[in-house]
Amino acid sequence: MRVRILPSAPGAGDLQHLITFVVEDRLAIDAGCLGLCGTPQQQAAVTSVFLTHSHADHVCSLPFFAMNVVDATGQGATVHAPADVVEVLHEDLFNWRTWPDFTALRQDGRPLVELVTIEPRHPVTRDGLTVTAIPINHPVPTVAYLVDDGDGAVLFATDTGPTEEVWEVASRSSGLRAAFIDVAFPDEMEDLAAITGHLTPRLACREIARLPSHVIKVAVHLKPAFRQRIVDQLEALPADNLAIGRIGWEYEF
Ligand SMILES: [Zn+2]
Ligand SMILES: [Zn+2]
Question: Domain holding 11: CATH number?
Fold first, then answer.
């Protein structure tokens, strides 16, 4: 399975200000920078978007993505999210104040943005990829996604603090190959990590010990200002198969 971590902005390099992963060119996890990367035609190749939660670093480019898809194809974009996130998008994003209500505007009878409510723990299949949402630990309702192409599976677990169910579900998936994991803060900021629902290298090490050792773990969501300290701390850990996320890179698992 090919997974690309989209770059946040021109010149940002390794810094991950905004969060979007694209699987097999056609399915996006989050839309922090989805609407900022590539041409409208390239963006329109992404036919399904799955949102983990409503925080701005995960949804802020969704209006530009939807606009580009509509302009490039004449058809609307399809966005999947849990009910709480759908509610926030209606109230705070597609509300005519922040952006025109693309969920109400229509072209050929279809909304410019179709918001599809998903139920955690109920797999849905889109274009050959089966996606399962699993609740994780963050100050607002948030899910991780397990994406399975029938041959193998990859887990996207960001943003989260210490959590339980997702590791059990992912470990039961026989084809699990890789897991992207939140490591937002350095160890000395563990108190702030706890309040804001993120992990530090030390905490992440404890969490990923719950995954099979052969699974490749990729640390993502490193806060830009602390990136080097987090990298140094991660590299000093005795964890198996732990890598630092390469922003802009396409992984093949
Ligand atoms: Zn968040
Ligand atoms: Zn975030």
Answer: 3.60.15.10
